[in-house]
Amino acid sequence: MINAAANEDLWHAAEWLSFWQLVVTVIGLGLAVAQLWRTADATVASKDLLARRLLSNDLLVMLPEIHTLEDELLQSVKSNDPDLVVNALLHLSRRAGSILGHLAANDGTKDEKIIKQLRAAMKAAQAAKSELAGSPTGRPIQEVVSLTVSKLSTVSTEASELVARLQKEAK
């Protein structure tokens, strides 16, 4: 009889041990699943941050181009050569469109006033290009592109401010 009671106590201890092993396994599995969720969330957040950072870096390279476009337009106007001015206006329109796309795609800059200003400069550049490339109106080149130069100068100033802000955010 002593043997049967000892076996019963051993069996009882083995059942408890199995029960606690199951509890520890379920808790461990739950913790592993929770960690997987946290890792997945961190990966998505990291991916979004990287995309925003890359877009900001693109803007940091592209925005100073506005100054170059402004200089190019001013030099072509000084030359008083309508073909050079038309080429500068065409180049301005194309690059401004690309810069606009990047600005609009960036969550941090999509509401900036530079977007409206750049669109206005592009519209003025296209109008000036159409006038210069079309039938001559007899107006001086400086007068034809004066609105474009004025709007581009405003965009250039705003671009400098935005570059400074983006550089500060990048640090």
What does this structure look like?
The protein has 171 residues and is mostly helical. The protein has a single domain (50-170), classed as Nucleotidyltransferases  domain 2 (Four Helix Bundle (Hemerythrin (Met), subunit A)), CATH 1.20.120. Helix content is 89%, strand content 0%. The protein is built from 4 helices and no strands. The chain has helices at residues 2-79, 82-105, 113-133, 141-170. Helix 1 packs antiparallel against helix 2 and helix 3 (113-133) runs antiparallel to helix 4 (141-170). The relative contact order is 0.11.
CATH-scheme architecture: Up-down Bundle
| Arithmetic mean of pLDDT | 83
User: Compute the gyration radius: what is it?
Assistant: 33 Å
Termini separation comes to: 79 Å
SSE string: HHHH
As a percent range, the share of helical residues equals over 70%
* CATH T-level fold name: Four Helix Bundle (Hemerythrin (Met), subunit A)
Find the CATH superfamily: Nucleotidyltransferases  domain 2
Based on secondary structure, the structural category is mainly alpha
**In DSSP terms, counting alpha (H) and pi (I) runs of 4 or more, how many helices?**
4
* Name of the top-level CATH class: Mainly Alpha
Taking the sheet with the most strands, its summary is:
none
Please mark out the parts with pLDDT under 50 across 5 or more consecutive residues, or reply none.
Answer: none
Shape: rod-shaped
- Report strand %: under 5%
